[in-house]
From TrEMBL:
Name used for this protein in its record: Phosphoinositide phospholipase C
UniProt cofactor(s): Ca(2+)
Chief location bin: cytoplasm
Catalyzed reactions per annotation: a 1,2-diacyl-sn-glycero-3-phospho-(1D-myo-inositol) + H2O = 1D-myo-inositol 1-phosphate + a 1,2-diacyl-sn-glycerol + H(+); a 1,2-diacyl-sn-glycero-3-phospho-(1D-myo-inositol-4,5-bisphosphate) + H2O = 1D-myo-inositol 1,4,5-trisphosphate + a 1,2-diacyl-sn-glycerol + H(+)
Residues of the EF-hand domain: 117-152, 153-188
Bias kind Basic and acidic residues: ranges: 230-242
Organism whose genome encodes this protein: Sparus aurata
SUPFAM superfamilies xrefs: C2 domain (Calcium/lipid-binding domain, CaLB) (SSF49562), EF-hand (SSF47473), PH domain-like (SSF50729), PLC-like phosphodiesterases (SSF51695)
Gene name of the record: PLCD4
Glycosylation sites recorded in the entry for this protein: 168
Binding site for Ca(2+) 3: 289, 318, 320, 367
Amino acid sequence: MMAGSTLRKVKSRSWKKQRHFRLLEDGQTIWYKSRWAGRGHSTFSISELEVVREGHQSEVLLSIAEEFPADLCFTLVFHGRQGNLDLVADTPEEARAWIQGVRKLIHKTQTMDEKERLDQWVWDWFQKADKNKDGKMTFKEVRKLLKMMNVDMNEEHALHLFTMADKSDSGSLEIEQFVLFYKMLTQRDEVWKVFQDYSGDGEKLMLEELENFLKTEQQEGEQSVQHAPELIDRYEPSDSGEHGRAMSFDGFQMYLCSQEGSIFKPEHRELHQDMSQPLGHYFISSSHNTYLLEDQLRGHSSLEAYIQALKRGCRCVEVDCWEGGDGEPIVYHGHTLTSKILFRDVISTLKEYAFKTSDFPVILSLENHCGVEQQTVMARHLSQILGDTLLTTLLDGTIPQQLPSPQLRGKILLKAKKIGGLEVCPDGTLTDEVSDDEEMPNDEAESASAENPPAECSNHDQRPLISFPCSGLSDLVVYCKSVHFHGFEQARSHGKCYEMSSFSESKAKKLAKEAGADFVQYNSRQLSRIYPSGLRTDSSNYNPQEMWSVGCQIVALNFQTAGLEMDLNDGLFRQNGRCGFVLKPDFMRDGHTRFSPEKPEERQGYKPRRLSIQVISGQQLPKVNQKEGSIVDPLVRVEIYGVPQDQSKEETSHINNNGFNPVWNETLNFVIHVPELALVRFVVEDYDKASRNDFIGQFTLPFTCVQPGYRHIHLLSKDGTAIPPSSLFVNISISELT
């Protein structure tokens, strides 16, 4: 790999071009260029890669399968929403070398401990600074490095640090000396101050002193006695940590920068919730028009979109089916210029990828525009491809009084119309039912009331969907029967637990405002699905928090669109092992609940919290403008999302020209009325007085997952991927409001 190979980069059946690829000396960067591009080249880091797929494991490589055998082909899959890189080698041996090599490098990157990551960052900076590649760094190269690192440091101080690190007085730094320079540059005075507050001799924390810090600042209580020696064993790099007796400043800083010292409670990262309750008692990570990678009018329909949604933990995907040629149903956004994919390929993709991230059940939401003949084909594909994975019978053969639990591991549930109910209808009559997304594009102008919603038609094509399914397709629907919503009173008296309705965002907002308590109660018994307005042709999203606040389980978002709304979705489902299911608060699961998000103080057990966040400092924030000499002016904003009374934002002042180690030391205060539903979002922006601030990074998590005390917040990119070592250092206090 370091010697390099010429590989074909493939974008389509007609776009196949040779590029020279090689692994750089750092063992972490892949470099490639065209033979005709002169000096132009591209690079990407191994840390950006998630996995290597072998053979024809992408739509692009499948399309050229007849031209290039599987043993020449492989796909590099990136984290987040970045597109795949499809490659073809000249020989099977060359393909194998790259597949195995990249897989080993990915594994090495993913299994690095904190110290190894730090060493890698130091090495990366040294490589970037050493422009002439002589293994040494001059002061001129150091000055350029500081600009690259987002540091605006006066030349005198920079020269002072350089001279202190240049032990040999050679006028240049080799790697060992550069490590010293980097350590001085990244010295954390604000962490040192905390360390000094608890260290008796100013050099180390004895076991009892560390216990005192954990008990007092980190609010760990009696657990601190057991936790202190464990932390020393895990993070103390020096011999003084042997036998768990003391922790140096390096060990203390390493602990605070680790996942264990992060803002997110470690025990909440794991699967820890009761998973034996009915499906309707959980929020379920859900995607809208899952097949689209871009907008709703001209976007690309792709199997890759399903794979990306599923690997983000999505547990409800949507399939829009239309009549296709050659008797095969197709999937696309009807009456638009979006591209088309085969229904059978979508189902095959679900079969392969549905349970790689989470083994909890997946709901397949079917929007059916096909005639009886192609519906029969759909039923056959579902049965033959999914086999036992598709749940087609009642679990115990009896009519359910409540939905099954998510313990249906490895099962796919079909949500669609059904002829009749689960009960035997003696007269064979059809029940009144309707599929999802049945609203007009101007649904914002509706004047529906909570109890008397109007008849609707499709928001996609402005005509009704297929009136009734064929019996073969209908028979596959068990626990998720699509029905028309006739108001909360009708649902209370006649609704079945397995019947579910879909609501546009505007109708759901209207119901939430007019009859929030009724909506919460309805959602304690039946599933509801919310989908974006038909006017969102750009695939933008609505705020899901408003829907979660009334207990809606399947709040479908355009997963392909990064931004605030998907940050909230990722934040909510970051807990509970990222399994795609989050248990609703107990006051939303009780069938007799009268909880209203508009009046949280009226609920039993009302206990508001005071949240105080001291924003202390930031570390190595990424550059927004890549121009040489451009340095960010960062500010931090904390946003609270929850019931209406909890919606709040506060921000720090901005720091001029320092993205490397800005210090704010500002405290932001909030009152949280319904802690169980609140999400906390930390946003870092580059201040601009003349125009809109630029986004730098963010991190979102449930309020219930916040660890008090001195914590680091590891920032994510707009795409939701990690951007190490960028972080915020905060001190968090949570108390009851008195």
